[in-house]
Amino acid sequence: PRTIRIAAAQVGAVHRDDARSKTLMRLITLLHQAARQDAQLVLFPECTFTTFFPRHFMTDEATIESFFEHGDITAAENTRAIFDTAKQLSVDICIGFAEATDDGEHYNACIYYHAKTASILSKYRKIHLPGDFEPFPEPDAVNQLEKRYFKPGNLGFNAFRVPDLTESSEENGEPIFGMMICNDRRWAESWRCLGLQGVEVVLAGYNTPGWAPQMWGSSSSQDPEEAREEAIFQHKLVMQAHSYTNACFSVSAARCGLDDGKYDLIGGSSIVGPDGKIIAEAKTEEDEVIIADCDLDLCSPGKKRTFDFARHRRVEHYSILTSQ
Ligand code: CDT
């Protein structure tokens, strides 16, 4: 069988001044909860270890660096405990973090950590960075200054195989995973790059504001409640539609809740099947584990019929996608 039990660990409010050790303990608690339900893999959100700091305009370098992880994330003091716990529980994790490289670059990254070998199987750096470099002039605006703090990812969209999750035979092989981060999920291009590599499970952590009138398109409501509903709807829309058109499962994990009592982030962590239907969904906007058994063979009909890319795509008409 090619069934994997996958969990998404939704993480509720994380305030700017929350001690990192406290946040880390919450993540470890979620990992234990998932492991008790026999999850084999747990997805954590984007920038999991701190509040979603790109909403803040900061110029002091030391303050900015305090939100980034430096050196080997699996060994660093602020983060290693989650990896040690994953290893101890034999549960793989995919987790997002703000990455500062040894040569001084900054990325919005995530890694797939393989518990059995205690190693990083794959790393992804967010390619579609939303928002702006400069803050909005309105003092109350919700900013998203990712272009200020991160460089666009330079690793591409690489699908990768994960050993030990299924009793794979040579015929069907080890499951094929892909990772993206938050805004990437809104772009058909991200999904198709993974889809063309035969991806069977897409993992996507996110931080999505429920209210960001300066950022959302002009169609969005000026009523906060309606705008929030729309943000949740559009999150589900892209996860469901792109899972269907790439015949894959997808797992999404939110950082959500009311950070600092005023910055609203939507919940809606979900697991979607290759038919585009939601099979598990968070009920709260707090720390919560959702879980589903994903039979990867359910990807085959879509990949062999409606979305058999080799038979049906007409690449001679797609050059505009990469020429502009
Ligand atoms: N973190 C992240 O990428 N958030 C964006 C907000 C976009 S604001 C219009 C998202 O796509 O959810």
UniProtKB/TrEMBL annotation:
Give every CN hydrolase domain span. Answer: 4-296
Q: Which GO terms describe its molecular function?
A: amino-acid racemase activity
Instruction: Report the sequence similarity comment from the record.
Output: Belongs to the HyuE racemase family.
What protein name does the entry list? CN hydrolase domain-containing protein
Report the source organism.
Periconia digitata
